Fold this sequence. Notes:
heterodimer; A: Peroxisomal Thiolase, Chain A, domain 1; 9-stranded mixed β-sheet; 11 strands; 31% helix; B: mainly beta; CATH 2.40.50.840; 8 strands; 7% helix; globular
Amino acid sequence: MSLRMSVAIVGAAETDSVAIQPDKSAIQLHAEAAFNALADAGLTKDDVDGVLCAGQSPVQVAEYLGITPTYVDGTSVGGCSYMLHVRHAAAAIKAGLCSVALITHGESGRSRVGMSGWGRAPQNVGSQFEEVFGVAGPPTRFTVPILRHMHEYGTTHEQLASVAVATRRWAEKNPRAMMRDPITVEDVLNSRMIAYPIHLFECCLVTDGGGALIVVSAERAKDFPKKPVYIMGTGESTEHSMISMMHDFTESRAFKVSGKLAFDEAKIAHKDIDHAMFYDAFAHTPMFALEALGFVGKGESGPFFEEMRTAPGGDFPLNTNGGGLSYTHTGMYGMFAIQESMRQLRGEAAAQLPNVRTSIAHGVGGMFHAAGTLILTNDDAP
Amino acid sequence: MPKRPIPQATPETAEYWDGARRGELRIQRCRSCGKAYFFPRPFCPNCSSKDVEWFTASGKGKLYSYVINHRAAYGFDDITPYVIAVVQLDEGPRMMTNIVGIEATPENLPIDLPVEVTWEKLTDEITIPLFKPQGVA
């Protein structure tokens, strides 16, 4: 079964702010995003029969919003969960399990209001075989593969820093971006060392915010206020729960599987992708995505970024909202990558590109633990 | 200051932790497909065979990749910056560890550096395998 062009996103919105908001709980952010997306689609909560979310349980979100759903999905595999939710919503709608799917993200990642605690049970395999060695969150786990990539492919510190520089150039154009001051490669390499080889400016932000999407069948998609965005291709996969178990530290198996599924389903060539959003938790994550999704050969991402091909004016516009590195990063950022794909395809982006017909939103979950990929278009017959 | 988290064994990992207390790096091998593997499971993650055995690894391997962490985890303030590494054992499997016995600088830590196991006792129950460059006392 192919899901190609069977559903469309007809509502998309973020919370009013995506910065630091200690006055709102995580589930409040889910709800604010949900109501904004419903308004965007001209719907009310009573039109919704599918509820999909991560972080909070869909039981909690449905209860909070006052929805009695016929389909729920609490797939929570980290920041790419929302790519998977779109994929699962497409399958559910195609199978007749629901007709209007609401996908929500809300996270008080910075202020930690209404969030569950950190830490894993001492019997968890991660506690037994990783945490005991003093890993201190994502900066010390997600980053462990980088030196291997540098060793095998000659990737340089300057190339890694270039990812942050290119992304910041997009953020300079976005008034909602948290970090907007221009930076240079030298600035990045002179920023505080977090976990060698990663410096502060190569790490994502930590913020509070949310986003939501409304998905319906393609047949109904033109009945809504805004031009629909159709799902051409989708993919998902997982690889490991501990970074030390990654099969090859120079490539993500989950990225490769997910990306291939999406491209095969979309029946589109790489050269026909106009705009890309690659989840940038750290500077190396989009490098790994560029290679694993097949936009460049293995080991070739370093020079690609160093040549500023992903920056404004480049031939591969990437992370045009300013990314997790400079726009916002609540914790599970994937929702914001999809939101920027939506804005570009609707012509609503702060740094709007001309003539965007297709966009790819590729997310990572955990520390290369999972992946989800969406290929989107505003063309109703691509 | 909060102390570092201390793990607890589960039934399928008890042999690993029992071995660690004795200074033996106990990992598993599949008798069916011949592959050694880590982390502990009562079956082979490669071929699903339950015909698996424990053995004591040589404790020698190579530095596969690492970071030098400058933001101390709970209980690690005194040794920060410290090396969080993944080591590839000569038997094949990889595991996370800390590299000790040398100053934590990139110059001291070339990728593929030969390393060998050394042990740190955390509690009466839990001893963990750390690695040091081969030949370092």
